[in-house]
Amino acid sequence: MLIASYTKLLYPAAMTTTNAYTSMTNRFRGFLPVVIDIETGGFNSEKDALLEIGAVLIKMDTRGLLHPADTLCNHVQPFHGANLDPKALAFNKIVPDHPFRYAISEMDALKQLFTFVQKEVSKQRCSRAILIGHNPAFDLSFLKAAIERCKIKKHPFHSFSTFDTATLAGLAFEETVLSRAVIKSGEEWNNSKAHSAIYDAEQTAKLFCKIVNLWKQNQPIS
After folding, report:
1. Contact, 178 vs 133, CB < 8 A?
2. SS in 3 state form for 121-132?
3. Which of 10, 129, 174, 216 is deepest in the core (most CB within 10 A)?
4. pTM for this structure?
5. What are phi and psi of 88, to 5 degrees?
């Protein structure tokens, strides 16, 4: 009941059936939430390879509830001179030189991602995108490092603001580990699919939407 109680106290008008949030333009200060998950060859965004990027768009229905929408995922070639930590590769089970990865360059991956996101930003009449991630500082740091390497001047994402589902899940479900939070939220979790960029992004998107919708609907969280 914690979220519902605070919502009534701080935003009583937001709990009525005439809630104005029926368009993403009027929500999140006009930013479009986009879930990003990045799989890498280590923890150092300047030196370690970016190997996968998964993205999930978020849409709002006529009731003002959020839902995961279209997805994009690319395998990415390690940039020239990139470090590949064997421990990181053992964790995410990525084989960078596997012939069937069909990986593309960082430049191509970023161009596809930004076109994908910017199209939705324009469609939903938002000002720009804001990254959602589970501990998003990690994903944003790798994204920004790749943008710098590719010398990309303009992109749709906010430069420093993010939504952190680890924090939100800690508040809503008393869990900060993604798998545990997803299960606590009532969704299923498949360990064999975990640590791929698209699977983790899809699960993070479900978790984000569940928490935001519970807040809006004034439903107790148990």
Report:
1. no
2. HHHCCCCEEEEE
3. 129
4. 0.88
5. -65, -40
Query: How far is Cα 155 from Cα 157, in angstroms, rounded to an integer?
Result: 6
Q: Where are the domains of the chain?
A: 2-217
195 carries an active-site annotation = yes
For 73-88, how does the pLDDT look when each residue is reduced to its tens digit (9 = 90+)? 999 999 999 999 999 9
2-217: what CATH class?
Answer: alpha beta
Catalytic residue among 75, 134, 155, 195: 195
Contact 205, 213 (CB under 8 A): no
DSSP bridge partners of 54 = 37, 73
Burial annotation 81-115 (CB, 10 A radius, 16+ → b, else e): ebebbeebbeebebebeeeeeebeebbebbebbbe
